[in-house]
Specification:
By secondary structure, this protein is α+β, with helices and mostly antiparallel strands. The protein contains 13 helices and 23 strands. It folds into 4 domains: 93 residues, Rossmann fold; 71 residues, Dna Ligase, domain 1; 123 residues, D-amino Acid Aminotransferase, Chain A, domain 1 (2-Layer Sandwich); 94 residues, Phosphoribosylglycinamide synthetase, C-terminal domain (Glycinamide Ribonucleotide Synthetase, Chain A, domain 4), CATH 3.90.600. The strands form 6 sheets. Strands 12, 15, 18, 19, 22 and 23 form a 6-stranded antiparallel sheet that branches. The chain has a 5-stranded parallel sheet with strand order 3-2-1-4-5, with helices on both faces. Helix 7 packs antiparallel against helix 8.
Length: 430
């Protein structure tokens, strides 16, 4: 493997990118780390540049001007728009799939077709661009039933409908979203699939062609409310390891899902070099794929990276340059938890500009910034629906959770909201 790059540009502005920036800064190679566009927290750790994540020409120009030797792409939109393709044309190595690989996230229908074609476990489904036909299908299937917008929808394109009436409303709403318009001129489509039951787990896989390594397991909490109630969000918290994924079950997931997925993507002619995030439902009949994402998960990244002993820069560089084979992961034994602090009202309308007052530093607790910025007075204020990720490490999940929630309670912000039960399923099971 070639020597590690001396400068790295991270693209994005969320909690995932802040976690990546911090992990890259911890590399023994001591790289110069840049970020575009970043947020108020990232700006405390790295130089930030006001170039939007969907500005492909602007990002390529920035990488050239700042002599970035490596680019780590965070958000799915940048990948879908072909940022990695454009960087490759400019001779700049990047971590993240090209547009053909990013389509696995940009189109849920494309992913479902691959899952069905290669016999990878997944729910029965059908695709529609016509509301009347979709509603007729819904009425013929048992409830609950899942309705998904085909394209990127910022975590809001999935409705788990408890009743047929709710599913019919979702059909009309999601067909009107046109979520794929940013990356194509395709007619709006939806995917309707049977609802799988069980516990979910997130499997993050660093892929380089047909080579891959599986990162530590985690379990996300998508619903806005305690007890997994209310609408889906981009993620309200997560923990690692997910002990429901026993070593034997992880071997089964590897054998039945991860290896077949990596091979299927390669068989489709895609040279995938990046993170394959596989959302899995652990059903009574066995693990089944809910979705593919083609980047690090958020907030999963905030608990997975702190448990990784490997040099993240070396790992991502190996994947991007085709030298991943033979690399073994070293995982810290500690438990990690991330509690997302959101603005009251998320995932619908929410305020911006509320001042955040942070508590004194606490050992083992890190505030990862997502939707933050600075006001004219230089104060850190809210600037998004998911504002912060409060990440804590501990010898047990219970101790990590106690530390994280103490920090959440101590933080002051008039519009703060967070779930009180992140990790409760595992703690109750024990």
């Amino acid at each position: 493997m070639t020597s590690l790059p001396s400068s790295v540009l991270v693209v994005g502005s969320g909690g995932r990118e802040h976690a990546l920036v911090r992990a890259l800064l911890a590399s023994p190679a001591r790289p110069r780390v840049l970020c575009a566009p970043g947020n108020a927290g990232i700006a405390q750790d790295a130089a930030c540049f006001p170039v939007a994540a969907d500005d492909v020409p602007g990002l390529v120009a920035l990488a050239r001007r700042e002599q970035a030797a490596f680019v780590v792409v965070g958000p799915e939109v940048a990948l879908s728009l072909g940022l990695v393709n454009a960087l490759a044309q400019a001779g700049i190595p990047a971590y993240g799939p090209k547009a053909d690989g990013a389509r696995l996230e940009a189109s849920k229908i494309y992913t479902k077709e691959i899952l069905l074609k290669y016999g990878i476990p997944t729910a029965a489904a059908a695709f529609f661009d016509d509301a009347a036909a979709a509603i007729a299908y819904v009425r013929a299937r048992p409830a609950p039933i899942v309705v998904k917008a085909d394209g990127l929808a910022a975590g809001k394109g999935v409705v788990v409908a408890a009743t047929h009436a709710e599913a019919e409303a979702a059909v009309r709403t999601l067909l009107a979203l046109h979520p794929a318009s940013q990356i194509s001129n395709l007619k709006s489509q939806i995917l309707i699939e049977d609802c799988l039951t069980g516990e979910e787990t997130s499997i993050l896989v660093v892929v380089s062609g047909r080579d891959y390594v599986i990162l530590p397991t985690s379990q996300d909490h998508k619903r806005i409310g305690d007890g997994d109630t209310g609408p889906n969000t981009g993620g309200m918290g997560t923990y690692s390891p997910a002990e429901v994924v026993t070593p034997a079950l992880l071997e089964q997931i590897d054998r039945e899902i991860v290896r077949p997925s990596v091979d299927a993507i390669a068989a489709e002619g895609i040279d995938f070099r990046g993170t394959l995030f596989i959302g899995i439902m652990l059903t009574p009949a066995g693990p089944s794929v809910l979705e593919y994402n083609t980047r690090f998960g958020d907030p999963e990244t905030q608990v997975v990276l702190p448990r990784l002993e490997n040099d993240l820069l070396a790992l991502l560089w190996a994947a991007a340059t085709g030298h991943l084979r033979g690399i073994m992961l070293k995982i810290r034994p500690e438990h990690a938890i991330c509690v997302v602090i959101a603005a009251q009202g998320y995932p619908d309308a929410y305020p911006k500009g509320d001042v955040i007052t942070f508590p004194p530093p606490q050992s083992g607790v890190t505030f990862i910034h997502a939707g933050t910025t600075k006001n004219t007075a230089g104060e850190i204020v809210t600037n998004g629906g998911r504002v912060l990720g409060v990440t804590a490490l501990g010898p047990t999940l219970r101790q990590a959770a106690a530390s994280a929630y103490a920090a959440c309670d101590a933080l002051q912000c008039v519009s703060k909201y967070f779930r009180r039960d992140i990790g409760a399923r595992q703690l109750t099971r024990r």
